[in-house]
Amino acid sequence: MILMKLFIELDDFMKVYEPEMKKHLIGEGSVKRNRSGKLTLSEVMTLLIYFHMSGYRNFKDYYLKHALVHLKEAFPDLVSYKRFVALTPKAMLPLAAFMKSRRCGECTGISFVDSTTIEVCHVRRIHQHKVFKGLAQRGKSSTGWFYGFKLHLVVNELGEIVNFVFSPGNVDDRNENLMGKLTQKLFGKLFGDKGYLSKKLFEFLWSKGIQMITKLKRNMKKLDLTFRTLHQRFFLIFDNGV
Asked: What is the SS3 assignment for 72?
């Protein structure tokens, strides 16, 4: 029942998404076949999402031992595992659009922010990489240098994703433009690691009604957040017309 409901919701979304997406595609001038595959994008997306609800920790085991065995009746045109893996990149953009439009959780006043790296190739092959040339950038994380993108996530205390943003790998987590987009619907307290430690960012978020909470470095003084200080800050923001 859950699987059917999930597929119907995704299929209804794709009926709106695909025509709009085709309007913005840039052609190369050559005529190409637009032959549909055995599996529709709606089915691919359904199987990818259902994997996270199945209890399997490994996608290969899930597909070979569960999907091909128990979901054959629901998806009679299931392809081989190798072919399905080749189809998954086509589903990434519509999945992100679906998530943004319908599946993000609500802010509860307690949120957590973090980022993770998405490497597109090994750092030694940067100059040979062509797929994301001009989009991916070289960046540095706590584990070292990488080439690719960053995924920035905000979740609430229930574990629900409230918002997410993709950025090139060289964008700082404390970038105000990035954090402005990421915290559009937030209020209350926002918890992050030392990577978000910045007085300028704290003041920027405070002006939006968000209190950024991070660990302090050893040589830093603790910020006074008593009621009196909060009261003074509130009227300072109010006087500035925010």
From this structure: coil
